[in-house]
Amino acid sequence: MPPVPAILIRSVLREVLRWYAAGLALFLVLQLADILSTTVGLLLGYDATPLEALTAFGAFAPTILNRALVLAVPFAVLLAFGRLQGDSELKAMFAAGVRPLGLVWPLALPFVLVGLVAYVNAGYVVPAGLDRWDRAWYGIYGTTPPPPTQDNYTYAPPGALFYAGRVRNDSGGTVAQLDGVLVQRGGETVTAQSGTWDTAKHTWTVKDAWVTRPGEDPRQVKGPLVFPQGDALSLPQPPANKVSTPRLRERLASDRLTPQQRRDDTFQLAARVADPLTPVVFALAAGALGLLIRNRAAAFAAVLVFIVVFYVVWTTVPQLARAGALAPTLAAWLPNLVFLLFAGLLAWRLR
């Protein structure tokens, strides 16, 4: 078959992009309405000023923008192809010798640019926005952010073990508070409800501790016990979704992450590459599906099924990655792989 005329490709792209603009506006409004419905009561209850409300919503805007950029793609492609099918324009194209798949591949081109916008937004703008969103609500509530804490701290130098259920650095200085302390050195085990960590002196100090030695009954020591401890006190790692892409790469290269934190960071970093490619994958899958749709009603139904299937997979894989049931990188790419497989099966049928 002869190649698809350029004027025909431009006509189809113009139709798709017109629907894309409408879909982008629709999904932005729907998400904003959802946020308003869940927060307007809190805003009124805490007498938030218009500026505080705008600050909070502005901080969350990059997140809803990325979702809208992706979800508007199947909406645009399927409804555009449904309109072309309903008006028999696609039938006329095929009757003139146009290859069906020749109309699908060009759809990916404009959405490459959408993917680039989503990549920059997800890696640099969204993390900072989520952090501002939290801080904005602390202002609305009239409270200060909680002090940095680290749960289940463990340090194991040769011949010893230092554990604290929680490390709290309320003042931000060189002395931190310890809760649920356990120290093992040789055959001696020391436990205490609380203690302090002086990073300038490199010591842990506990009071009213219980000391257990092999073959002896536990005994309580009323005075302070001081243990040399050479580890450095560092701020707890912020959640992966609040860390920019360059900082996330640096953090993954360090050896201070727990297995859980490493899985979260790996998934988040992979998702920031996979998710911006979703518009391109959606354009191919929705384009192939659109060629099989015969009317506008079927196109609208296909949009709903398309988005629901994606949303179910997209919201499930982070939990699988976090639980270790699925490799984090595979979990991040799984939604795209599912729809690429779907697009491949439809392309085989349309060949």
Automatic annotation (TrEMBL):
Membrane topology: Multi-pass membrane protein
Entry-linked Pfam families: LptF_LptG (PF03739)
Keywords: Cell membrane, Membrane, Transmembrane, Transmembrane helix
TM segment ranges: 20-44, 64-84, 104-126, 297-314, 326-348
Domain of life of the native organism: Bacteria
Main location: membrane
Protein name: Permease
PANTHER family attached to this UniProt entry: SLR0882 PROTEIN-RELATED, YJGP_YJGQ FAMILY PERMEASE
Places the protein is found: Cell membrane
